[in-house]
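Project outcomes to date are best conveyed with an example. Our students and postdoctoral researchers have been running inverse folding experiments weekly, and each run begins with a structure described purely in tokens. The record below, which covers 157 residues, was selected by the lab manager from last quarter's runs and is presented without edits.
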């Protein structure tokens, strides 16, 4: 049974939608992204939308007693603040136990291990929901349930 669930944000909880030079884009180069975050600050995610099926999946886990976390890579304080604002504006207060930002995708698994240890939860009772296959596979190898967002469509049946 999943007791701790960790959800990536970009492309998982959040459908990317950014306005750059009058056009809607779903992503950009790292350099352009950093400049975009600096320019827009906490409003970086203002046009992004939650992904309903992922939200529904998170809610089902919550209903079963799991603690739900956002675990996302953020390269700057602006990006972290923008993600926190997105969560606050799009999810009920207390929906997520915590919004955690890490510097690199590889930092996600040590964070999960640390929280699981602190909570007294076995790794196999933790789940990481992601849109990056490499991170999902790394979670599985570590003994954590790794779920790619594409799998959620089948799991809600």
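After processing, the design step wrote out the following sequence:
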């Amino acid at each position: 049974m999943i007791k701790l669930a960790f959800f990536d944000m970009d492309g998982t909880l959040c459908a990317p939608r950014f306005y750059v030079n009058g056009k809607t884009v779903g992503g950009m180069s790292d350099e352009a992204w950093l400049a975009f975050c600096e320019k827009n600050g906490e409003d970086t995610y203002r046009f992004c939308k939650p992904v309903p099926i992922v939200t529904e999946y998170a809610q089902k886990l919550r209903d079963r007693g799991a603690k739900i976390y956002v675990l996302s890579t953020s390269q700057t304080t602006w990006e972290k603040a923008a993600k926190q604002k997105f969560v606050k504006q799009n999810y009920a207060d207390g929906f997520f136990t915590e919004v955690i930002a890490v510097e690199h995708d590889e930092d996600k698994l040590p964070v999960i291990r640390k929280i699981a240890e602190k909570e007294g939860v076995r790794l196999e009772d933790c789940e990481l929901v992601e849109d990056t296959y490499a991170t999902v596979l790394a979670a599985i190898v570590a003994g954590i349930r790794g779920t790619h967002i594409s799998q959620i469509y089948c799991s809600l049946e």
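The first strand starts at residue 4 and ends at 7. Strands lie at 4-7, 14-15, 18-20, 23-25, 49-50, 67-73, 98-102, 126-130, 145-148. The training component of this project remains on track.
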